[in-house]
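Input sequence (166 aa), recorded before submission:
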Amino acid sequence: MPSGVPEERIDGESPADHALRLALAKAQAIAGRHPGALVIGADQVAAAGERVLGKPGDAAHCRAQLASLSGKTARFYTACAVLGVGAGVRLAHVDTTTVVFRSLTADEIERYVACEQPYDCAGGFKAEALGVALFECIESQDPTALIGLPLIWLAGALRGAGYHLP
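Predicted structure, C-alpha cell format:
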C-alpha cells in the first residue's frame, strides 16, 4: 500500500538514517490505518561518497548517473521496519550493500539503458536483471537487500514475532 509519506531528506541526515526514518514512517502510516495488521515498511537510499543517488527518472539522467558511477563504489542502505501495533511489535534494520561498478563505456551504458530503462531505480540499474553485468562485485550480508527488501533479516524478524517460516 502506498503510505503517502514524503521522502525528502533532512539536512545533515546520513543516507542510512534517511532510509531508516522513511521505512519506519511508511510502516507507521499504514499501521495507523490498520492497527490489527503486521506491517512491513521499507526504503532504500543509494550514495556514492557524500552524493545521494536518486532515481534517474529518464534516459538522459540514467546515462549520466551510470557514467558517474563507472569504475567507482556506491553504497545502498536498505531499511526495513516491522510494526504490529496490536501485538506490540516494533523491529527495524538497515542493511548496507556495497557495489563496485566496473569501468563502463558510453556504448555499454547506452545499450543497458535502452534495454532495461531503469528510470525508477536508485543508482540507475536493476541488479535483479541485466544491471548485474555493470558490476565488478557486490558485498552484502543479504543480497536481496540490493533489490529493495532485506529478506534474510525480514524472515528472522517475522520468526521473532511468532510467525512460522517457511
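Checked by second reader. DSSP finds four helices and five strands in the chain.
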